[in-house]
Amino acid sequence: MRADAAGAMIHWDEIEFKLVSDLIESRFGLVFDMGRDGLLMNQLACRIADLNLGSFTDYYHYLSHHPDRTPELEALAQQITNGESYFFRERHHFTILQEHIAPRHHARSPRDPLRVLSAGCAAGQEAYSIAITLHKAESSLGATAWKVDACDIHPGRLEQARSARYGESSLRSCRDADRRLYFEEDGGSYRLRPAYRNRVRFFPANLTDPAVVEWRRYNVIFCRNVLIYFSDDAFQEAVDQFSRSLLPGGYLFLGHSESLINRRNDFEPVSLGGHIVYRKKEAGPSSVYS
Ligand SMILES: C[S@@+](CC[C@H](N)C(=O)[O-])C[C@H]1O[C@@H](n2cnc3c(N)ncnc32)[C@H](O)[C@@H]1O
Asked: Cβ neighbours of residue 281 under 8 Å, at least 6 residues apart?
């Protein structure tokens, strides 16, 4: 088989595909099955040409042993991850947060801040949708504080997230009135107003790395449209990490194509607002929600 690198053809076979794809799976948890093999190899071919390497095997050795392998692995993660996101994707999740979780938190733990994590936040569209939602929920949160943390493996997306500037496609599911309320137009792009930015903190993290130290204890974790690209093992590691990071009774939102069915976990499906979400099982009297 061949991959196209700016005019030059780089040949590859199944063994080379397996070498490279196994390395990607072990580092980032991402799987590229044979249906997406050509796509992956074409993406990598340009990089191989830029590095003046001759083959995918050379690239595998570069990623495994070269002194510059760490920045190269970071660049690779950026190249192969899908960053598609937009504000209020799967809007019902934000309605559940506003109408069910925020009032429930205030009723049971009014002095504890409501902490939410957006894991795999892309350029911040999900994290800021959460922040806008919690602003809207302030009448039911009363004096209860709230904070949003957000992480992603892709530094470029995190940089855009911190700048809070977006194009039309990120706002495609925002109603006109909401656009005017939450964003200011600025030379063809939209910038989220400061009031919705200042309680959101972004940090880099690889969800499959058990050494992620910045995680706190959360009441709610959103991890949507991320695990769908993960291997079974990486999916499981991420779910275990969420379980450790969520307080008992805390909620986990997954994307519509992701589920915990047939996976080891300590979550229970609960119905909120007519939708099923996952809640971490309670563990005795110290639970935050009963
Ligand atoms: C398709 S976007 C989903 C964004 C958002 N959660 C949403 O639903 O709109 C997937 C994001 O997951 C990030 N990602 C992929 N693998 C990751 C990993 N191992 N650790 C952290 N983030 C990862 C990608 O960089 C990308 O920004």
From this structure: 248, 266, 267, 268
The whole-angstrom separation of Cα 86 and Cα 121 is: 10
Which domains, and CATH codes, for the chain?
2-80 (1.10.155.10), 91-286 (3.40.50.150)
Closest atom of ligand 1 relative to the 154 alpha carbon? 25
* Tens-place pLDDT, residues 87-133: 999 999 999 999 999 999 999 999 999 999 999 999 999 999 999 99
Choosing from 28, 153, 157, 230 the residue with most ligand 1 atoms within 8 A of its CB, the one to mutate for a pocket test is 153
Rounded to the nearest angstrom, the distance between the alpha carbon of 196 and the centre of ligand 1 is 21
Are the CB atoms for 140 and 103 separated by under 8 Å?
Answer: yes
- Pocket test of ligand 1: the residue of 117, 152, 241 to mutate, having most ligand atoms within 8 Å of its CB, is 152
Contact 113, 147 (CB under 8 A): yes
- The CA–CA distances, whole Å, from 201 to 107, 193, 226, 263 equal 26, 15, 19, 31
Ligand 1 binding pocket includes 126 (Cβ within 6 Å): yes
Mean pLDDT calculated for residue range 2-29:
81
